[in-house]
Design a protein that fits this description.
The complex is a heterodimer of chains A (219) and B (299). Chain A is mostly helical and 219 residues long. In chain A, 74% of the residues lie in helices and 0% in strands. Chain A is built from seven helices and no strands. In chain B, strand 5, helix 10 and strand 6 form a beta-alpha-beta unit. Classes of the chains: A mainly alpha (219), B alpha/beta (299).
């Protein structure tokens, strides 16, 4: 019965959303507002409390009360009161006069994230990508690989030329290489557009599959 | 040419209707298009085939229901394959609803595994240690969502059990057989055979790639179609052993494990819808050129 009800509610909400394709209407707006409300409630209660706060903070500070199994007998980790306190500071955002207090926590999170991102971006993105872009243009006995490497090397260089804006994109060398860069970018936009269309159609298939299979049972 | 110019001003709702029909009709008539696995999907499949029985694999569900039609089928196919090879999926998530997405995929994969157990056993496609029913906490675990993305992954590298004292349902992970090592060592990231992230956007596989220098584990991705051009770069650098891209990637993996799921079911509507959209793009371009010529003639 519960499963049947959830399918019918799901089908109704799906049709409400599809109705926007005809024109904006109260059914679509109802579905939109319902989604926002349910997401906020679900995120706060089920996700934030039960999957994050309870196991990672409360169960470690007060294991007897919140932990399960052998973890209930472990000694409390009072060190975690510090991040817990910093988390509480975020609630000051609700106060117009004291919202500045929450900035300490935001600054800490930003500092850690930025520090990690800078180091890891260089180590895992920039260096491996540059290293793999350095390739032999001629691979003996493998025409396809040679052509593939040539396309990659020319594309990398031409696109880098295009994104150098300190000089005007003119002249026989600089202007033409920039033009090649534009062509590569256009091709990549085409690929991205194609992939996006594919993705959106897949989502549509998913919804129609739900309506025709789970709801109506005709396929 | 006048016809094309008229079509340019066609009400967009007719376009929506055509696209909807191109998806619905192949589904109603149960059209089945052939699927040919590509080297990216085969790379992941072959890697999984070579993993020793009992290997624990970390699957990160970094998406929400909005991307489920694209990533769910991939996850189901990969987990089903894992069960058949007696590999043990340990699911987590960098996205808030990752735990719920993992639960849905695990439940579906377990039912597919159970319903095809005898058939696969007769065909000799099951690993020696496979049981007819997979057990939570022994053969798989759903650890749920943890916030932090890169910071969460970094925490997993220093102490895997630290962020996961409990699974998604609140059961203590310390007692679970899936986390126990034969030599009594504490479970660490180095015990993970492969990390697979089903990624819909930020905070997915790129979080794992970022700290790859710390965990040194092989990685693969299941990604939405939109992300394919972005993640292909990690395949060419060898940072990913394989990738399933969008619904077609899922269909390819399903073909490799001999399962007709949502991926393969969606290939006929997908192909026909693409043809319809290509047709509209061509018509739109012809109409544009025709209109330009007409304007020039008038001038």
């Amino acid at each position: 019965m519960t499963s049947m009800l959830s399918i019918w509610v799901g089908a109704f909400i799906t049709l409400c959303c599809f109705s926007f394709l005809y024109r904006d209407n109260p059914f679509y707006r109802f579905a939109e507002h319902l989604f926002v409300g349910v997401s906020a409630g679900y995120y706060f209660s089920v996700i934030s409390f039960h999957q994050v706060l309870k196991p990672n903070l409360l169960a470690k500070i007060m294991p007897m009360q919140f932990a399960t199994g052998s973890a209930a007998t472990t000694p409390p980790e009072y060190m975690l009161l510090i991040p817990g306190f910093m988390g509480l500071l975020m609630l000051f955002r609700f106060s117009a006069n004291y919202s500045w207090v929450s900035r300490f926590t935001v600054a800490f999170v930003m500092g850690v994230s930025t520090g990690l991102a800078i180091v890891y971006s260089a180590q895992q993105y920039l260096i491996p990508q540059v290293a793999k872009a350095i390739r032999p243009i001629v691979v003996a006995g493998d025409f396809f690989q040679s052509f593939s490497n040539l396309v990659l090397v020319v594309g990398s260089v031409a696109c880098l030329f295009y994104f150098f804006f300190s000089t005007e994109h003119r002249g026989p060398i600089y202007g033409n290489i920039s033009k090649v860069g534009i062509w590569y970018l256009m091709l990549s936009f085409g690929a991205a557009f194609g992939a996006t269309v594919m993705g959106r159609i897949s989502l549509l298939i998913g919804r129609f599959s739900f309506l025709l299979h789970d709801w109506l049972g005709i396929v | 040419m006048e016809l094309f110019i008229k079509l340019k001003n066609l009400d967009r709702r007719w376009v929506f209707l055509c696209v909807a029909l191109s998806v619905v009709l192949p589904m109603i008539f149960k059209m089945d298009f052939p699927v040919f696995p590509g080297k990216n999907v085969e790379g992941l499949f072959n890697f999984m085939e070579k993993l020793p029985e009992g290997t624990r694999c970390f699957l990160s569900f970094d998406f929400d229901p909005a991307s489920e039609p694209e990533l769910g089928p991939s996850a189901i196919a990969i987990i089903t394959h894992m069960f058949r090879k007696n590999l043990k999926p340990m699911c987590g998530g960098n996205w808030p609803l990752g735990g719920e997405m993992a639960e849905a995929a695990l439940s579906k994969a377990a039912s597919v595994y159970k319903s095809t157990f005898e058939e696969m056993k007769a065909a000799g496609k099951l690993a020696a240690g496979c049981k007819p029913v997979v057990e939570r906490g022994v053969d798989f675990v759903n650890l749920g969502y943890k916030p932090g993305a890169i910071i969460h992954v970094k925490a997993l590298c220093s102490d895997f059990m630290g962020p996961y004292p409990q699974d998604r349902d609140g059961n203590s992970t310390k007692e679970m057989p899936i986390f126990m090592n034969h030599d009594g060592r504490k479970f660490e990231m180095s015990d993970v055979g492969i990390i697979i992230s089903f990624t819909a956007g930020t905070g997915g596989i790129e979080s794992f790639i970022s700290v790859a220098g710390d965990h040194k584990r092989p990685m693969a991705a299941g990604c939405t179609s939109v992300n394919i051009p972005r993640f292909v770069t990690y395949l060419q650098t060898g940072q990913l052993v394989g990738m399933t891209g969008g619904l077609p990637g899922a269909a390819e993996y399903e073909a490799l494990i001999g399962f007709f799921g949502k991926g393969r079911e969606g290939m006929a509507p997908q192909s026909i819808a693409h043809l319809i959209i290509m047709l509209f793009i061509i018509i739109g371009n012809i109409a544009y050129i025709a209109e330009q010529r007409k304007a020039k003639k008038k001038a």
